[in-house]
Design a protein that fits this description.
There is one protein chain. The protein is 45% helix and 10% strand. It contains 15 helices and twelve strands. A five-stranded mixed sheet has the order 1-2-8-5-3. The protein is globular, with a radius of gyration of 21 Å. Bound molecules: protoporphyrin IX containing FE (HEM). The site of protoporphyrin IX containing FE has 22 residues, from helix 10, helix 11 and helix 15.
């Protein structure tokens, strides 16, 4: 029985030769003690959930808070305290403050809006495929395809006018930490986007259009809150979807035998790709009171780090969970989390993936990686994988 797990860095590691392999240390821990005490890099003695049932129970349990200022982060080298959630970032709030934002936003993802967005994603995907085909090879799928599609969706949601979209896309791109980007560059882009969104909120108040931001201007949200929600949606919806689109492409290129199933049953296939590519790193919660989970006593004030990738591969829930099997029933995976903070944009993300992924393989049947797998620049940041580039090639 593991007494105290002292390798939180495993949550952020992957094997470059086999990027989708769960670090063996996490698989061992999951088998021995699926909710195990863990020493965090800042010395905090909290817990690590690697088992599916334990992770799901924590995420769905009312005893746990997600207030950032109460949480310890298992990131190597992280020793400071987290500041409270910035205005509009309701992921870092608990009920009732969280509920106020969640209700308002959930009501905006209507069936009609989803239908309109679906048509726009279809049209835009066709445009991006044509643009991709015209590029010299190897071409970077992230810059040419995987990032622009979710960026378009965010622009539509927020009602960013067509004339501003190229600027907006570049500013969003510049906000991502990657090789050659300095902290100053990121800050400059963040401030510019923040200012832009504030102006946009004012414009929507004066002259509403058909988008979520305009509709929210009639709610009781203040200008600061609306601007913050815009910034938060950008952070929550863009990079995540782009990464899953890129990782799913990589996973399929490494498992070409599964492509037929993607064509036959895209909805089921996408669910399995979400499970398998998961999100790396950790999702964290802090116990507000003493609470017993799976026979372990988590004390008030202790942080539980959840490894979604370990939970998503738990053999007790998903038999042979380390294998990609597009024919399996992968529903119930934790890639969109679970409970009150379960991803608000999950249906939208599924629409994007179901359209963009099969279309890519249909347009380029000979699609192939242009570099060896270990050269694909993949790293795990605070709470997810980050795929900086995905160099691909194909035959005419
Ligand atoms: C929350 C994953 C796409 C909006 C979350 C959470 C996860 C997640 C894991 C919960 C985090 C936690 O509990 O600590 C993903 C993945 C996506 C994706 C893997 C793409 C494949 C989107 C999109 C949008 C979106 C497209 C909207 C445009 C949100 C919001 C929350 C959230 C607003 C906060 C919900 C709340 O606190 O009530 N997402 N997401 N996400 N996501 Fe997503």
């Amino acid at each position: 029985m593991t007494d105290l797990f002292t390798e939180p860095e495993l949550l952020f590691q992957h094997n470059p030769e086999q990027p989708f392999q769960l670090p063996p240390g996490l698989a061992r821990l999951r088998a021995e003690r699926p909710l195990a005490p863990m020493r965090f890099p800042d010395g905090h003695e909290g817990w690590l959930a690697t088992g599916y049932d334990e992770a799901r129970t924590v995420l769905g349990h009312a005893a746990f808070s997600n207030r950032y200022e109460l949480i310890h982060i298992p990131l190597p080298g992280f020793s400071g305290e987290m500041p409270p959630a910035p205005t509009g970032d309701f992921l870092g709030l608990d009920a009732p403050e969280h509920t106020r934002f969640r209700r308002l936003l959930a009501g905006k993802f209507t069936v009609r809006r989803m239908r309109v967005l679906t048509e726009q994603v279809e049209r835009f995907t066709a445009d991006r495929l044509a643009a991709l085909a015209a590029l010299p090879r190897p071409a970077d799928l992230m810059a040419a395809y995987a990032q622009p599609i979710p960026a378009l969706v965010i622009c539509e949601l927020l009602g960013v006018p067509a004339t501003d979209r190229e600027w907006f896309r570049q500013a969003v791109n510049g906000m991502l930490a990657r090789e050659g980007t300095s902290a100053d560059d990121i800050m400059t882009n963040w401030t510019a986007l923040n200012d832009y969104l504030r102006d946009l909120v004012r414009a929507k108040r004066a002259e509403p259009t058909d988008d979520v931001l305009s509709e929210l201007t009639t709610s009781d949200l203040t200008e600061d809150e609306l601007t913050g929600v815009g910034v938060f949606l950008l952070g929550a919806g863009l990079h995540t979807t782009a990464t899953v689109l890129g990782l799913s492409t990589l996973a399929l290129l490494m498992n070409p035998g599964q492509l037929a199933t993607l064509r036959e049953n895209p909805a089921g296939a996408i669910e399995e790709l979400l499970r398998y590519t998961g999100i790396g790193g950790a999702t964290v919660r802090v116990a507000r009171t003493d609470v017993e989970i799976g026979g372990e006593l988590v004390k008030a004030g202790q942080t539980v780090a959840i490894s979604p990738i370990a939970a998503n591969r738990d053999p007790r829930r998903f038999g042979d969970g380390d294998a990609l099997d597009l024919g399996r029933d992968a529903s119930g995976h934790l890639s969109f989390a679970h409970g009150v903070h379960q991803c608000l944009g999950q249906h939208l993300a599924r629409v994007e993936l179901r359209i963009a992924l099969p279309a890519l393989f249909e347009r380029f049947p000979s699609l192939a990686l242009a570099v060896p797998v270990h050269e694909v620049p993949l790293r795990t940041t605070a709470n997810m994988y980050e795929l900086e580039r995905l160099p691909l090639t194909w035959q005419d």
